[in-house]
Design goal:
About 45% of the residues lie in helices and about 15% in strands. The chain is an alpha/beta fold. The longest helix has 16 residues.
């Protein structure tokens, strides 16, 4: 698989599908190519529709390095490196916390980002700034101890996975691949805390690219309000809700939405 080198020297593993206008897919927490089955299916669908689609491993996952110290801007530079490898311009499709990271990239990279699609940025308005940074500190402590499994278990419990289901997950053959990247969940907590627990309107005021913020009506209760909040902070955003979709949308549901918006 090819790699690009980010500005701080970190190698970033990626792969591309198709030929045409470029789209970079920005994964959320826990996602990377070795465990993500849905994104390749989506990439193939978009490639068939005439796009070049790049999937990459966020730093610390899969075939990408994880140079320390971490900063959100380092991940923005990773996205920029992938965009540059595709010719210097691309649209971004971010999922969950990856949607917030993609928005940060759109704000920082300007004309290099042509359009932005955010699926369910997990902005929880009921969570205080103090709580967000306390949870970040907990995740960064687990990361510092090298306890990826503990970080993954803590995260899964926090998002509501029942104890019996979590026990089954930990006993499954899939668990080691997820536990291996558990430490990187701290990255997502920092992305979310820094971007959403301050003045989002001021932070994202420069994202003038056309943006689409999408949620599913069968997802977590706070996702619709979070999508509304993100759209309100983006100067050129529209909103869409997908019927029957949860936090991980079916390819058949999200692919036509992406094609229609990114071709406009």
């Amino acid at each position: 698989m090819p790699t690009v080198t980010s500005k701080d020297g970190t190698p970033i593993g990626y792969e591309t599908y198709g030929s045409g206008p470029a789209i970079v897919v920005v994964a959320g927490a826990t996602q990377y190519r070795a465990v993500d089955q849905a994104s390749p299916e989506l990439a193939k669908r978009l490639a068939d529709a005439g796009f070049t689609v790049a999937l990459f491993d966020r730093r610390g996952r899969g075939e990408s390095g994880d140079t320390r110290p971490y900063a959100v801007m380092r991940e923005v530079e990773d996205i920029e490196a992938v965009i540059d490898a595709l010719g210097g311009k691309a649209s971004l499709y971010g999922m969950s916390s990856g949607a917030v990271l993609a928005t940060e990239a759109a704000a920082a990279l300007g004309a290099k980002v042509e359009r932005l699609v955010c699926y369910e940025p997990p902005i929880d308005e009921s969570q205080s700034r103090e709580q967000a940074f306390a949870e970040l500190a907990e995740m960064e402590a687990l990361q510092a101890r090298g306890d990826g499994a503990g970080a993954m278990e803590t995260f899964m419990s926090a998002v509501g996975m029942p104890e019996e289901q979590l026990a089954g997950f930990k006993a499954s053959p899939a668990w080691p691949a997820f536990a291996a990247v558990g430490g990187t969940i701290a990255h997502d907590y920092r992305v979310m805390a820094e971007a959403t627990k301050g003045d989002m309107n001021a932070r994202w005021a420069g994202v003038t690219q056309p943006a689409l913020v999408v949620n599913g009506d069968a997802s977590f209760d706070f996702m619709a309000a979070g999508a509304d909040r993100a759209a309100a902070a983006l100067p050129n955003a529209t909103r869409k809700t997908l019927a029957g979709q949860g936090h991980g949308p079916d390819v058949d549901a999200i692919a036509p939405v992406l094609v229609q918006f990114l071709r406009a």
